[in-house]
Structures are given as structure tokens and as C-alpha cells.
Write a structure and sequence with these properties.
This protein is mainly alpha-helical and 106 residues long. The chain is 78% helix and 0% strand.
Length: 106
């Protein structure tokens, strides 16, 4: 169940970060409120995931996959530029998260 909580924690964190961009610097009410709703929900779910997952792995997956998803959303939805360095960095994040998962229990 920890992994299910973690997946939803990541999705909520990504929704909260996307709401930050959509709020236009807290000038729009609904996205501004959603920042706090989604981040609060994300932290609750992350905390619940820690009942059965190692904190090092859960936090690395939460932050790493959240970062990779937000960068992808930035590129696809907000039309941010994708250069070789950005792409390589995203790949390294994913490799790092995978490496932490492979090292669990060793």
C-alpha cells in the first residue's frame, strides 16, 4: 500500500507545482488555493507511505519523479525549451531514483 500512497503523493505534488505556475504569482484565487490543497494532500500521502517504505527511497522517488514529471509538463504544456543538458539531467534523475530502489535492503 505504501507504493500506492507514494504514487498519489507524487501526482498531488505535481498538481500543486503546476498550480503554482497557473496562479501567476498568487494573482489568481483558485490555482493559489489549489497549491496548498495539493501540497497538503501530497505530504499526508507521503507520510502514509512511510509506514511501509524506507524514508530514503520514498523521499527520493517523491522528489525525483516529481521533478521529472514537472520538467516534462513544463516542456509539453508550458512550452519550456528542452536542451541536451536538461534532457541529460532528467535521465540522471531517473537513473538515480532507480538506483536507490535497486539498493533497498542491501
Amino acid at each position: 500500500m505504501g507504493w500506492v500512497y507514494l504514487v498519489f503523493a507524487i501526482l498531488a505534488e505535481v498538481a500543486g507545482t503546476t498550480s503554482m505556475k497557473a496562479s501567476k504569482g498568487f494573482t489568481l484565487l483558485v490555482p493559489s488555493v489549489l497549491i496548498f490543497v495539493f501540497y497538503g494532500f501530497s505530504l499526508v500521502l507521503l507520510t502514509l507511505s512511510l509506514k511501509s517504505l524506507d524514508v530514503s527511497v520514498a523521499y527520493a522517488v517523491w522528489s525525483g519523479m516529481g521533478t521529472a514529471l514537472i520538467a516534462t509538463i513544463g516542456i509539453l504544456w508550458f512550452r519550456e525549451p528542452l536542451g541536451a543538458l536538461k534532457l541529460a539531467s532528467l535521465v540522471l534523475i531517473i537513473i538515480g531514483v532507480a538506483g536507490l530502489n535497486l539498493g533497498v535492503g542491501r
